Q: What sequence folds into this?
């Protein structure tokens, strides 16, 4: 999807997307920096958008790994289907609040990492907490929930649910943002 199409989707669906521009290469690299090509075989992406970060995740994954990408917007899912042809990608046109149910349907009990671009600052607190608790239950011990944000406001909820949180600044992004690495 070109920049104008992405902007239009963002304006129409701001509460779902939380941004009006694509993530920069610097943001995408930081979001995927914690993937171990050799060891990480099952990854979840929440809020795939039009697949910008999705492609970076796939580029870091092993040939036998699997990526379950969630995107609630049907038009953005169609864009991903057109632009990414990779057998490791399972695109789910569904809500992240049902992540555990979807993983049960695919026979997945635990995952190596969860990479999220969901705009939690725009979500009701109860919904944010429910999604994050589901993610915590799905994560393997010693693995990470990675979240992109444009503010540090929600750090306490991540600390409460995941324990340790390390925050990385990404200045080369519009707007500048943060990557939260949550977990042990």
A:
């Amino acid at each position: 999807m070109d920049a104008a199409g992405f902007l239009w989707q963002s304006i129409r669906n701001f509460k779902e997307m939380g941004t009006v521009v694509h993530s920069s290469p610097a943001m995408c690299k930081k979001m995927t920096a914690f993937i171990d090509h050799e060891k990480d075989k099952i990854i979840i992406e929440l809020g795939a958008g039009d697949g910008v970060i999705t492609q970076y995740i796939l580029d870091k994954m092993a040939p036998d790994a699997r990526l379950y990408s969630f995107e609630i917007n049907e038009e953005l899912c169609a864009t991903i289907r057109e632009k990414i042809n990779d057998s490791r990608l399972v695109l789910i046109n569904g809500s992240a609040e049902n992540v555990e149910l979807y993983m049960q349907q695919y026979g997945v009990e635990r995952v190596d990492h969860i990479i999220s671009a969901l705009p939690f600052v725009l979500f009701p607190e109860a919904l944010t907490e429910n999604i994050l608790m589901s993610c915590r239950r799905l994560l393997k011990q010693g693995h990470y929930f990675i979240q992109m944000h444009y503010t540090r406001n929600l750090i306490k909820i991540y600390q409460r649910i995941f324990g340790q949180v390390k925050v990385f600044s990404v200045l080369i992004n519009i707007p500048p943002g943060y990557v939260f690495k949550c977990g042990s």
Remarks:
- The beta strands are 42-46, 66-70, 89-92, 111-116, 139-149, 165-170, 177-182.
- Residues 1-20 have pLDDT under 50 and may be disordered.
